[in-house]
Amino acid sequence: MIALTRSVPRSITRCELTHVERAPIDWSRADRQHAAYEQVLRGLGCTVQKLPTLEQHPDSVFVEDTALVFDECAVITRPGAESRRGEIESVVDVLRDHRPLRFIEAPGTLDGGDVLCIGTDVYVGLSTRSTEDAAQQLALALAPFGYAVSTVTVRDALHLKSLASALPDGRILIDSARVDAGVFDADAIEICGNERAGANVLVIGDTVVCPGAAPRTRDRLEREGYRTAVVDASELAKAEGALTCCSLLLRD
Ligand code: CIR
C-alpha cells in the first residue's frame, strides 16, 4: 500500500474553516503530529510517498480532498473551496503513473472527504463543498467498473466522512446524531457519547486508526473485535482536518 501525504505548510494558520471557530494553530505541534501519523502508516506496512509541500495552499496537507483512488482508476476532484484548486496539479503528476485518470469538471465540485466507499457502494455527501453535478460525473466515471453511486445530504459537518467511516468488515462507524444510519446499506456502530471526532477513522488493512480525541469510541471498537491504533490529531483538528484527510491510499 502506498500512502501519499504532504507536509503541513506553515500557512496552515490561514486555512479554510466552516464549522470550527478559528483558534491559534501551533505549526510545530501540527507538524510533529503529522510526522507521527506518517510513522503509524509505515508501522502498518504503508510506503509513505511525500507530495511536494505547498506553502501557497494553507489546506494542502489534507490530500484526501484532491482525488479518489480506486483499483481501476483515480478520479481527480475539483475541490469546493477555490483556494484549494491548485492542490490537484501535483497529485495528477503522481497518480498518472499509477492509474488511468478521470476528472471532475466545472461546474461540479467535489472534496474527497465527502466520498465514503463501502465495497462497491459509493456514497457522496452533498455538502458546502460537493455538488449533485459532481456526484453524477462520478457515477458516470465509475459505472463501467460496477460501482453504484448515491448521495447523502450533509448538514452540521464539513464532509460526509466527518460523520461516518467504513470499517474493515463492511460495517460503518457513525455519528447518527448528525447523519441517519438508514441511508447506508451497512450495519453501523455508533460513536461514543459526544466524541464527534471519533467518526472519522482511517482503515489500513485490518487496523482501524482512531483519533486520540475519541478514546471511548476506540474502546468500543476494540470490544467489537477490531484491532486499533491511535494518532493524536488535535492540532490538525483546529484546521477542521481529521485522519482520513491526511493521506491518499493506493494499492500498488
Ligand atoms: C478545509 O476546509 O478544506 C480544510 N480546512 C479541512 C479539510 C479536511 N479534509 C477532510 O476532512 N477530508
Structure description:
The structure is a single chain. This protein has 252 residues and is α/β, with parallel strands linked by helices. The protein has 5 helices and 15 strands. A 3-stranded mixed beta sheet has the order 2-1-15. It is globular, with a radius of gyration of 17 Å. The protein starts with a strand and ends with a strand.
Total helical elements: 5
Number of strands: 15
N-to-C series of helices and strands: EHEEEHEEEHEEEEEEHEHE
What strand order characterises the main sheet? 2-1-15
Which ligands occur here? citrulline
Pairing-aware structural class of the strands and helices?
Answer: alpha/beta
Radius of gyration: 17 Å
Distance between the termini: 6 Å
Write the topology of this structure.
Layout: E1 2-6, H1 27-43, E2 47-51, E3 67-69, E4 74-76, H2 88-95, E5 101-103, E6 115-118, E7 121-126, H3 132-142, E8 148-153, E9 164-166, E10 172-174, E11 188-190, E12 202-204, E13 207-211, H4 215-223, E14 227-231, H5 234-237, E15 248-250
Parallel strand pairs: 1-2, 4-5, 7-8, 10-11, 13-14
Antiparallel strand pairs: 1-15, 3-4, 6-7, 9-10, 12-13
The structure holds citrulline.
Citrulline binds next to loops.
Name the descriptors:
5 helices, binds citrulline, three-stranded mixed beta sheet, single chain, 252 residues, globular
How would you concisely characterize the structure shown here?
The protein has 252 residues and is α/β, with parallel strands linked by helices.
